[in-house]
Amino acid sequence: MCTQSIGELHALPLKSAGSNWLMCFPEFYDVQYIINPWMEGNLHAASRVQAIEQWRGLYNAISGFAHVELISPEPGLPDMVFTANAGLERDGIVVSSHFLHTERRREESFFREWFKKKGYTIADLPQEMAFEGEGDALFSNNGTVLWVGCGMRTDRRSHPLLAHVFDAKVTSLHLVDPRFYHLDTCFAPLADGFVLYYPAAFDSKSLERIHSFYPQHKRISVSEEDACRFACNAISIGQTIVLNEISRELTSRLENAGFRVLSLRLDEFLKAGGAAKCLVMRLGSPATASAPASPHSSSSMDLSSAAPSTPESEPR
What we know:
Elements: E1 20-24, H1 48-63, E2 67-71, E3 87-90, E4 93-96, H2 107-117, E5 121-124, E6 137-139, E7 145-150, H3 159-166, E8 169-174, E9 187-189, E10 195-197, H4 204-213, E11 219-221, H5 224-227, E12 235-237, E13 240-244, H6 248-256, E14 260-264, H7 267-270, E15 281-283, H8 286-289, E16 300-302
Parallel strand pairs: 1-2, 4-5, 5-16, 7-8, 10-11, 13-14
Antiparallel strand pairs: 1-15, 3-4, 6-7, 9-10, 12-13
C-alpha cells in the first residue's frame, strides 16, 4: 500500500513560465470499470506505486518550465487523475464537463468547485449534452480554430455552444476508431503551425478539414504502433513536447521539425486509456482568470437558452 500523500508534492520546485497546468495526484488511481477499449483486460491491473512514480516524472518535467496547479484527489474517483477531461478554459472562462459515462460524473462537482474557488467564470452546457473538456476540445496553436471531437464521447450539439462561449471558429472532427475515443488521443496541435495526428482515427470529411488547415509540410502523421503508444496524447509547451515513450523514427521526425522531445514512461496510465496530455489541463494565468473577459461578468453562465433548437443528426 502506498503511503505517499499529495502534501509531499509541496517540496517539489515550481517555476512559472507563462504556462499553467492542472494536475491531480494519483492517490486513488486504478482501473475499476471498463468505459474504453484500453481498460478491457486491465481491471485492477495498474500498479499504484509505479503510477505515482510515473506521474511524478511527468510533474517534474512540466514544473521545470511551467507552473502546475493541483486539485486534491477524491476517494472512489480513480479517473480524476485525468484532469484534461475536467473542462476547457480560455480567457478566464471554463466550460465545465459533463461526462457521457456515469462512472465519471461524480468528478464534475469537485472540478467545478475548484474552478470557482480559483476565480474562473463557469459556463454550464445543458445537462443532456455530453462534453469531456480538453479530451475533445483543443485550440490550434495560433488560437484561430477550436478543434472539437465527436462520435464517441462529446455531443455534436455542444459545438456551436463552445463557439458562442469562446467567440471562436469551431471545426468538428468525427472520431471513428473506438481506441481513440477522445480527440487528444489522436490529434495534437503543436507550435509553429504543426500538427501531430493519427489519420485513421478520423472519417474522410474530418481529414479534409485537417488537411485544409495544416499544409502537408506541417502535418506529422504517426503509425498505428505509435498511435497505440498514445504518441498524439502530447503536451505542447513552445518547442517542447512531453509525451509517452515513442519510436525512435517519430522522435527523429519531431526533432527534425525543430522540437525538443521529452519522452517519459507512462504505461501504467495507458491501462486506463490515458497518457501525458490526459494527465494535464491547460489553464490561463491567475491574472487572466481573476478578470473574466467581457461581456461575461458573473461567476457562472447558463447556456441552456443558447442551445440549438434542432438536434444534430451526427451521433455523439
